[in-house]
């Protein structure tokens, strides 16, 4: 009788999670059974009590002291570990192996716990082993086991394996259907998720809120908005709009599909808005480019006294990033600190990205250094931030540190580092990064392939850029533009024009950047008539309206060919607002062809328009100097001084023996400046001895 009494009381303590009373009861059981073995039902109940109350250490001690364990003993501990999350789930596979070694036959409850644990720690190998045992013992056909197995395969991303399991399940419940839909949704396989929902309705299975929210989460692009509307109608028809999770999923779906009006209607109709509802609408605005509306809605949320979640903050910070609102970003940062979210990795990643995009690299680095163990996403954000702000040396340095700390990069990391090498024209470093790309097994898909092509093109290595371009599995318009630009800028204009023809044969539609590169090639080759053909082709064939860059290329084509009056007429007849850009190009061409009359006309136009670029004043001054008009030279000097225009010092650099040597006009800081100046004096004397006469312009630098 005492055992039955103990069992009933243990069951009550477990249900109430009354650990204190349970421990007292445990002591009584030990005292009452000191002279005889404890009943297996009582020991199993004790394991279950400690497990359900969260004391897994005590549960394990009681379990280990059971002499003759049955399947319930094992199940109690296996399920306790699996339900506790990834921290203890890795112990489940060890227990399962021990259980089999001790010849205890697993049942459906065992496999449900094992598959849950495998999904928690993404243990594909262990999960597949348990799958084989489940089939062998016929436990696989239990609906709960099948659903757990489905969940495991979906969690690790093996949706094809999950679908095979789903198709042969003799019985499915609402969890099975929802899990399969969710698996497809996690992989953004919207068509397959919709197919499962349709099959679910065909088999007259009752739709539930989990199935609908799962399929809605798969609809993330505009082409699926009509499917989303049909599911919205279905939710109305079967009365599932009363669930706030369904309302939230609809707001999110409309936002991600770009239908903000529908998202806003759903948001306003929602009667029980929680932080997820607000976050969904704020994120929808931010992702659609309506960042100001996102910030305004966040302010409304704050005054409505709705506590924001970390996801809300991420959406708002991204909105600040897109419009460069650093002051608002700092306020949101302070608010997030107050709410205790500063240690969240995705929060810090968003903050680093925001500060970097707003130009505050120092603050971005502080956020990066705050986390002791940042993940690869945060490293990528910081490296990308350096590149965006022209801190290319810092980007390469941080990438080297990332390698030394053993953190594996992703495609975006490599693309950012390659962009840094491009900006520095650092060919050797770029080749080393190329080697890392091969080492890490990245393919030449568009993000990396395009960045690698750009790097080789900027460094003038045409053989390498052609090799990368030809090996890319898919090429978009950006890839073609990089190749055409590289050929055009490195003296292979005819090859650039041939590649443009090949681009059209492969049915890749050119964009405005393509035509800038093509017109630039025509300019370098002196192909005036061909340039006009391409300029007119833009709108007539492809519907691309010429922009300032295209007009500038046409003026350059005419200017390089010496057709200066034609260039002047083209500028004056252009309908685009070109400011001073076109006159500046014409002025440079006039200087080259010594057409001083037209040059002074273009130069005076620039003075009249209030140019702030020193080159315009320098060119005009040199023309007046050549004409001997010293009063005009002095006038140009005074205007330049009055407007506060100064000539920026020239800067160049060269890589020698793994060192970058930077030279700036007037800088005396180089350690070998004495030897360099001596060589320059020797070269200058040699030039003068051979009759070279230097041209002195408005500003000069003495050696």
UniProtKB/TrEMBL annotation:
InterPro entries membership: E_motif (IPR046848), PPR_At4g14850-like_plant (IPR046960), PPR_rpt (IPR002885), TPR-like_helical_dom_sf (IPR011990)
Protein name, entry field: DYW domain-containing protein
Key word Repeat present: yes
Alphabetical keyword list: Repeat
GO biological process, one term: RNA modification
Keyword flag Protein biosynthesis: no
PPR-type repeats, residues: 70-106, 142-176, 274-308, 375-409, 476-510
Superkingdom of this protein's organism: Eukaryota
Lineage: Eukaryota, Viridiplantae, Streptophyta, Embryophyta, Tracheophyta
One Pfam family it belongs to: E_motif
Alphabetized GO MF terms: RNA binding
UniProt source species: Fagus sylvatica (Beechnut)
């Amino acid at each position: 009788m005492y055992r039955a009494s103990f069992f009933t009381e243990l069951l009550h303590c477990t249900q109430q999670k009354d650990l204190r009373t349970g421990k007292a009861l445990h002591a009584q059981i030990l005292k009452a059974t000191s002279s005889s073995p404890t009943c297996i039902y009582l020991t199993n109940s004790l394991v279950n009590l400690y497990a359900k109350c969260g004391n897994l250490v005590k549960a394990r001690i009681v379990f280990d002291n059971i002499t003759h364990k049955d399947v319930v003993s094992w199940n109690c501990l296996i399920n306790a570990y699996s339900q506790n999350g990834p921290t203890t789930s890795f112990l489940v596979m060890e227990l399962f192996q021990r259980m089999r070694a001790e010849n205890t036959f697993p049942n459906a409850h065992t496999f449900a716990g094992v598959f849950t644990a495998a999904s928690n720690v993404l243990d594909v190998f262990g999960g597949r082993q348990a799958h084989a045992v489940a089939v062998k013992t016929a436990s696989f056909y239990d609906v709960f086991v099948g659903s757990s197995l489905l969940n495991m395969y979906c969690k690790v991303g093996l949706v094809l394996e999950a679908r095979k399991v789903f198709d042969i399940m003799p019985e499915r419940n609402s969890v099975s259907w929802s899990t399969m839909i969710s698996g497809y949704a996690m992989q953004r396989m919207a068509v397959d998720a919709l197919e499962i929902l349709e099959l679910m309705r065909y088999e007259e299975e009752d739709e539930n809120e989990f199935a609908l929210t799962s399929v809605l989460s798969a609809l993330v692009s505009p082409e699926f908005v009509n499917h989303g509307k049909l599911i919205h109608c279905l939710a109305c028809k079967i009365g599932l709009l009363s669930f706030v999770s369904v309302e939230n999923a609809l707001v999110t779906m409309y936002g991600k599909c770009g239908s903000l009006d529908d998202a806003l209607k759903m948001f306003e109709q929602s009667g029980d808005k929680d932080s997820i509802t607000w976050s969904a609408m704020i994120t929808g605005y931010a992702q659609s480019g309506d960042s100001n509306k996102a910030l305004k809605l966040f302010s409304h949320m704050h005054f409505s006294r709705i506590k924001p979640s970390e996801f809300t903050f991420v959406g708002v910070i991204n909105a600040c990033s897109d419009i460069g609102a650093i002051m608002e970003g700092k306020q949101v940062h302070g608010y997030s600190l107050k709410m205790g979210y500063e240690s969240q990795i995705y929060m810090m990643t968003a903050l680093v990205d925001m500060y970097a995009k707003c130009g505050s690299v120092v603050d971005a680095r502080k956020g990066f250094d705050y986390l002791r163990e940042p993940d690869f996403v945060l490293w990528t954000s910081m490296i990308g931030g350096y590149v965006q702000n022209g801190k290319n040396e810092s980007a390469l340095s941080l990438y080297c540190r990332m390698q030394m700390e053993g953190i594996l990069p992703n495609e975006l990391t490599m693309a950012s580092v390659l962009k840094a090498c491009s900006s520095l024209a650092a060919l050797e470093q770029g080749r080393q990064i190329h080697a890392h790309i091969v080492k890490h097994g990245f393919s030449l898909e568009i993000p990396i392939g395009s960045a690698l092509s750009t790097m080789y093109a900027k460094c003038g290595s045409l053989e390498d850029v052609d090799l990368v371009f030809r090996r890319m599995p898919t090429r978009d318009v950006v890839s073609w533009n990089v190749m055409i630009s590289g050929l055009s800028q490195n003296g292979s204009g005819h090859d650039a024009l041939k590649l443009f023809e090949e681009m059209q044969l492969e049915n890749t539609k050119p964009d405005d950047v393509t035509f800038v590169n093509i017109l630039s090639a025509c300019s370098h080759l002196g192909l005036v008539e061909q340039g006009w053909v391409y300029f007119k082709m833009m709108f007539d064939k492809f519907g691309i309206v010429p922009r300032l860059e295209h007009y500038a290329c046409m003026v350059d084509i005419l200017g390089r060919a010496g057709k200066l009056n034609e260039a002047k007429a083209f500028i004056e007849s252009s309908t685009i607002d070109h400011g001073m850009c076109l006159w500046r190009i014409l002025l440079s061409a006039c200087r080259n062809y010594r057409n001083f009359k037209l040059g002074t006309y273009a130069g005076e136009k620039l003075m009249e328009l209030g140019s702030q670029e020193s080159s315009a004043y320098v060119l005009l001054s040199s023309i007046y100097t050549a004409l001997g008009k010293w009063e005009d030279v002095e006038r140009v000097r005074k205007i330049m001084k009055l407007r506060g225009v100064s000539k920026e010092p020239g800067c160049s650099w060269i890589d020698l023996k793994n060192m970058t040597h930077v030279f700036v006009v007037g800088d005396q800081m180089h350690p070998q400046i004495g030897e360099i100046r001596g060589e320059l004096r020797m070269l200058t004397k040699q030039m003068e001895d051979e009759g070279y006469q230097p041209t002195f312009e408005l500003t000069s630098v003495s050696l």
